[in-house]
Design a protein that fits this description.
The protein has eleven helices and eleven strands. The chain is α+β, with helices and mostly antiparallel strands and 323 residues long. A six-stranded antiparallel beta sheet has the order 1-2-3-4-6-5, with helices on one face. Strands 7-9-10 form a three-stranded antiparallel beta sheet. It has a two-stranded antiparallel sheet with strand order 8-11. About 4% of the residues have low confidence. It comes from Streptomyces sedi. Its EC number is 2.7.11.1. It holds the Pfam family Pkinase.
Length: 323
């Protein structure tokens, strides 16, 4: 059955799975290798000048280069980049799971262990990214996917910034790449960014995981920049009394207005979150089939057998396949 157009004589579009300012993400099937992939096509809004079109095209190519040069379990793999009928496309690993924003909405507040488990994995990805002179610049809940086995993946390097000398500046005056909820003060002001910009965003995510609410919110988004620039965040334990004092201190340091007042690198965040990771579990429980997302699993059962949903487990048992 023909379920959609085929791009590059290879990728058959199934359905739209997301969209944003830079483009649309589709679930597609790679007919050469027989696997599903995520295919992102670039938006070209009407009315752009030639310079704006060239800048957007370069930003799209940069996403592919930024992601392709990174090698980490927590980053979706880039498979292909191309253009067809004047439409640029990027093909990446299709990651299934729940995004962090939805996880927080489901749970209202995450446990200390779960927030630490997710935060440590994000810090690990950021450490790898920053070591290669790349800053994400748009870290937010919708860009963090938690697979059912608990592995965290960070998506969308569409506004990633290179820190290498000589890299062309692609952001025009007045543009602020990223999303306001997790945007650092230096981004609001249009100043230079570095790895500490991503660490501010991680502080925003930790705050929201632990309290259920963003650091700053207002019924008018136009008021958010002023709050981010001028208002101190509410201390974590004012909103979550059971939070450890050291964890509150870490979140407040991450949310410092000045980059120099934040922790210097992602490895420091990893170290300071590690005390709240779950203890190693009984190896026998690693074989228990899961039914829902479990961000604690990678720490309770590191390098454990691949988790499978209950239906898959039951089917293999019926067929006589060893569990």
């Amino acid at each position: 059955m023909d379920i959609g157009p085929v791009i590059a004589k290879r990728y058959r579009i199934k359905r739209e799975i997301g969209s944003g300012g830079m483009g649309v993400v589709w679930l597609a099937h790679d007919e050469h290798l027989g696997r599903d992939v995520a295919l992102k096509t670039m938006n070209t809004p009407p009315g752009l000048t030639q310079d704006q079109r060239a800048r957007d095209a370069e930003r799209f190519r940069r996403e592919a280069r930024a992601a392709a040069r990174l090698d980490h379990t927590g980053i979706a793999t880039v498979y292909d980049l191309g253009e067809e009928n004047a439409t640029r496309f990027l093909v990446m690993q299709y990651v299934t799971g729940i995004d962090l924003e939805d996880r927080i909405e489901e749970q209202a507040q995450l446990s200390i262990e779960e927030a630490a488990s997710i935060g440590v994995q994000i810090a690990s990805v950021l450490g790898s990214v920053h070591a290669r002179d790349v800053v994400h610049r748009d870290l937010k809940g919708r860009n963090v996917i938690i697979r059912t086995d608990g592995v965290v993946k960070i998506l969308d390097f569409g506004v990633a910034a290179f820190l290498e000398p000589g890299t062309a500046r692609l952001t025009a005056t007045g543009e602020r790449p990223g999303s306001l909820e997790c945007m650092a003060p230096e981004q609001i002001l249009g100043k230079s960014v570095d790895q500490r910009t991503d660490l501010y965003a991680l502080g925003c995510l930790l705050h929201k995981m632990l309290t259920g609410d963003p650091v700053f919110e207002h019924h008018s988004e136009l008021m958010l920049p002023g709050l981010i620039l001028d208002h101190p965040p509410i201390p974590l334990r004012d909103l979550r009394p059971d939070a450890p004092e050291d964890l509150e201190t870490l979140v407040l340091e991450l949310l410092a207005k000045a980059p120099d007042d934040r922790p210097p690198h992602a490895g420091e965040i990893w170290r300071r979150l590690a005390p709240w990771l779950p203890a190693r579990g009984d190896p026998a429980t690693a074989l228990t089939p899961w039914a829902e997302v479990d961000p604690l699993r990678p720490f309770r059962h590191p390098m454990g057998p691949e988790a499978r949903p209950v239906r898959s487990w039951a089917r293999t048992r019926r067929l006589g396949t060893p569990g």
